[in-house]
Amino acid sequence: MLDVWSEKTGYNFGTFEEGITTSIPLPLKSLTVSEISDLKFTIISGHLPPGLTIKNLNVQGAPIEVARPTVFEFVIRATKISTNEISDRTYSITVEGADEPIIITEEDLLPVGPNQTFFILDSSPVNFQIDAIDYDTSTGQKLNFFIDDSNGTLPPGLSMDRNGLITGFIDPLLAIPIVFRDGGFDEQGYDAYAFDFGIRPDNGFDSFKFDSITFDYSAPYRGPRKLNRNYEFIVTITDGDTYVKRRFRIYVVGEDYLRADNSILKVGTNAYLASSSSLRVPIWRTPMNLGVLRANNYHVIKLDIYDVVDFNTVQYYLEESNPDSSLSKLPLGMKLDIVNGEVFGLVPYQSSIYNDYNFTVTATRFGNDNETASSSRTFSVRILGEIDSNMTWVTNTYLGSIGANFISNLKIQASSSLSNPIIEYNILEGTLPPGLTLEKTGEITGRIRQYSQNQDEGLTTFFDIDPITNQRISNQTFDNGETGFDRTYKFIVRASDQVNYSSIDREFTLDIDTPNDRLYSNLYITTYMPLDKRELYKNLVDNEQVFPQSHIYRFNDPNFGIRKDLRVLIYAGIETKESAEYISIIGLNHKKKRLRFGEVKMAKAKTPGTNQVVYEVIYVEMIDSMDFNDRHLPLVNENSPTSTNPLTADLSNYIWNSEGKNLFISKKEPFLPRPFENVTIDRTNVFASDPKQKKRYPSTIYNWRQRIRYHKDITGTNLLTEQNFLPLWMRSFQDNREELGFTLALPLCYCNPNMSSDILLNLKNYFYINNFDFKLLDYTVDRYIIDSVSGYGNDKYLVFKNQEATI
């Protein structure tokens, strides 16, 4: 047993303050330098206080914030590196320093009034935040604000939430009854009326020296009709462990106190500003969006402001322009009543579906001596034309069935009596199968995930693992496969017209087929042209005049729309395997290759078994110069030897001649013969039986596909192919009643039925005007793009490299 500790289990390092840099020596016995260098210390259980770490035989760092004094227990293991001996001890460290909340808002009067004045008129709105900070909130604590029952009260009408925000409208102060008169001493019956509002005159007989003015002199004064009030309260703030309190006041003033004829208002109080006014700025209650109104009807819209009592006169004015400098215009036929703020009138017949109007109204409150206070608001209203918006569903309730892992072409559709309707679709209840999405246009895009990928959910499936192929095989062993799985999805969709005037709901049902127990992948190629050539292609596909959005099929669907990625399909629906399996496929017959551009063509995609066109595709035919229509080069071609020196390879990867002499040593420059190519020990296209290199492996698209199709895995089994992963347009009968089958093509766009002729004409004009030709582009490829491999659902690259392949 390793003996290095000077303290037993249970030892506490001490109490340390949070946030303070600390260095605590480990409790070790006296050790030599060599002994120390042979030790390693690790935490194997519990944890040090956050912010501390073991370094150089010390626990050092700065403990981070703790909510309350906290004891951290941990087990340190000392390991002798040379002998692997260990010794464990359980120790602890106490961290304290729980912080009290710090109140930032100054004590006493709160600046709740306009422009942060320390008073506020009654019947006015308040929105004031009491600020506080607490460093312990970093540990998860939250501050809570409240006013204890015995700690005062807010002005009536106001409330404070748990975050310290005071909001509401102050209830109006009551006027003093006239019978209270001045409230002077002995002028009323004892205890009959309140006395504290009485104001003693300070400019009369008792205010001057004896005999300095005439007997019984007194200057007139006017007391306020309302009594100003100070509302005092104590706010308590807690973080759950500690409490702090602070006293505040809100000074509420009656509006008659801020008048020039108030002779008791003192200038030296510093509570009022010269700009203080008894007038309240109008506060709008009517929202900015007035909604939707029908044309050919009489309408009244009340523009309302907040008034809890009868204040001064308010008038309403229509501004000439809005804040954004646009014209401030009421709907046709409507007027503004400047006295009561009503917008009223008969809106005439309107032929358009809808018109939007924006107008700005200013509410001005008038006081004495032409004093005013104003507030403006911009309103918007939509006027619907005298039309009916009747909606009906075109798509049946049952959407049919769709195979898992296949691209969806489904779409739901409703119709409206509006001309050129824009209908939006949203799911109200239920869900789509995993991998599918309902677009606002009604298109159901994506592909159903049969199995979960990259943490995305898949369908519920019970399966076995094939012990030979390590593939999943759907199986139900609990009742001999009698029980089926729920492969039916139901969801409710709401279709709404563009003015949100009418809508219609429908429940749809979609069945899911799972015909395959395996996943399948697709192999593509793409080119990485120089920037100037890529710019040529980008200018073409981004041209709205060539590819109008209204002509494009599923414009926002990544599987359709306008194709900008320059991808060409090489093989569709090959069984999904690990990356290494595909690398072995491309070890032969694969080299960097350049394809030629052919003609621009069109093809139709039709619903299987029918003549109904789903979409049309415009593509550029791609040509491999080494493929000749139906005549193809063989996978292996044996020619006469091209070298008189038989070749062998060793682990050093040098090339040797027949006499066993190293060509790089026996010859010197400039007579050093160049080897025809580098030979490595892992090459699969160089054979000991073919030392003079008679065999060649032609690199053609046809041979690429053959290598994929007939590849055998480690068990000697061919990879499976699923024909239905071939794009629909390649599997559809064209107008000549022939199915295209696999076509080496670069798709330019997918368009709606009967729209391809327009786009083809646009392309012809573009080529002529811009002197464009696809032959100006360079389509050279040196890799595959595979859309999924085992355990990884995104694109991967398989690069060709001198007959070898790497990822």
Structure description:
Residues 645-683 and 803-807 have low confidence and may be disordered. The chain has six domains: 12-96, Immunoglobulins (Immunoglobulin-like); 102-176 and 224-269, Immunoglobulins (Immunoglobulin-like, Sandwich); 289-384, Immunoglobulins (Immunoglobulin-like, Sandwich); 391-517, Immunoglobulin-like (Sandwich), CATH 2.60.40; 521-636 and 700-806, Cyclic Phosphodiesterase, Chain: A (Alpha-Beta Complex), CATH 3.90.1140.10; 638-691, no CATH class. A hairpin with a 6-residue loop joins β37 (593-606) and β38 (613-623). With 807 residues, it is mainly beta. It is flat, with a radius of gyration of 43 Å.
Overview in brief:
The protein has six domains: 12-96, Immunoglobulins (Immunoglobulin-like), CATH 2.60.40; 102-176 and 224-269, Immunoglobulins (Immunoglobulin-like); 289-384, Immunoglobulin-like (Sandwich); 391-517, Immunoglobulin-like (Sandwich); 521-636 and 700-806, Cyclic Phosphodiesterase, Chain: A; 638-691, no CATH class.
Number of domains: 6
The CATH architecture of the largest domain can be given as Alpha-Beta Complex
Instruction: Please report the distance between the alpha carbons of the first and last residues.
Output: 50 Å
The CATH class assignment of the largest domain is Alpha Beta
Largest sheet: 5 strands, mixed
Overall shape: it is flat
Would you tell me the structural class of the helices and strands?
mainly beta
- By oligomeric state, this entry counts as single chain
Task: Let me know the number of strands.
Answer: 45
User: What is the helix fraction of residues, given as a range?
Assistant: under 10%
Q: What is the average per-residue confidence, as pLDDT, rounded to a whole number? A: 80
Using the CA coordinates, give the radius of gyration: 43 Å
